[in-house]
Write the structure tokens for this entry.
Amino acid sequence: MNKPIVAMTEAWPFIRHYRNKTFVIKAGGAVLSNPEAVKSIAQQCAMMSDLGIRIVLVHGGGAQATKLSRRLGIEPQMIAGRRITDAETLEVAKMVYAGTVNVDLVSALREQGAAPVGISGVDAGMIVAKRRPLVKIKDDSGNERTVDFGFVGDIQSVNTNLCTKLLQDGFLPVVACLGADEKGHPLNINGDTVAEALAKALEAEKLIFLTDMPGILRDSGDPSSLIPFADADELASVLESGIVAGGMRPKVEACIRAATAGVKRTHIIDGTAVRSLLLEVFTGEGTGTMIVGDREKQEYQEKQIG
Ligand code: ADP
Ligand code: MG
């Protein structure tokens, strides 16, 4: 039989199931520094949007912020995958996240015929956050330190009104990972955390993290050590074991909270791999690490057996 027709028939149940459902997709800075990956992600998001999936694209821009910081003579400081944001770094975050990266993503989506609207968590009080107090934290070497993260926000509430209105009207919100306090003062917020908060508030069907790794690895130097499937409890012990470091840590923490809060499926996949999003969404194959809640785990295991 004709190949495209076979492929379309296979994808049909997924297309039907996901129509009108919300996916929150987060593209990390590592992926966004690869122009081919940006084009491919834009194409896949545009296609899913055309198939009736309500896509919200959240982005970071850590790699780009680091680059601009250095150009401006400011050496970035990271602890446990999170950026220390002094006043100058907050300026950089605004320029990069709500500026270059956001506009470039909107532009790439326009090129693919989608209807993107670039916003940040500051708009319409979407992400309300509180400046983080001094915290005791274990750094990547496992040493406890007291850290002032500066203008970094911890999310307090999410107002989905703007996103919902845009989605209802067929737009594709592209959300830069900034938030603001009650008075509207901007704060830098980790993109993984913004995606998690939006997925929970929008009761998303899926939360998908696109990064530059095949998923969560037991050994970050060995792609064959991929953890293909985990629930929140298993992930908590993975975190405890210390095999997850740097920027993967906030991602795994976000997955645990999302799964616990009822987001059915959370995925960490390689955004640089060819059509990885479509493969995940429209085939039974799946890629990367899939994180599920308890109920989903039971269903999945029954299906595996059955
Ligand atoms: P993004 O821009 O997508 O948020 P980050 O650089 O913040 O990406 O986080 C992903 C990075 O986390 C990977 O590039 C990898 O270097 C690092 N990492 C640390 N531990 C692991 C692990 N166990 N599995 C996969 N990646 C890991
Ligand atoms: Mg990151």
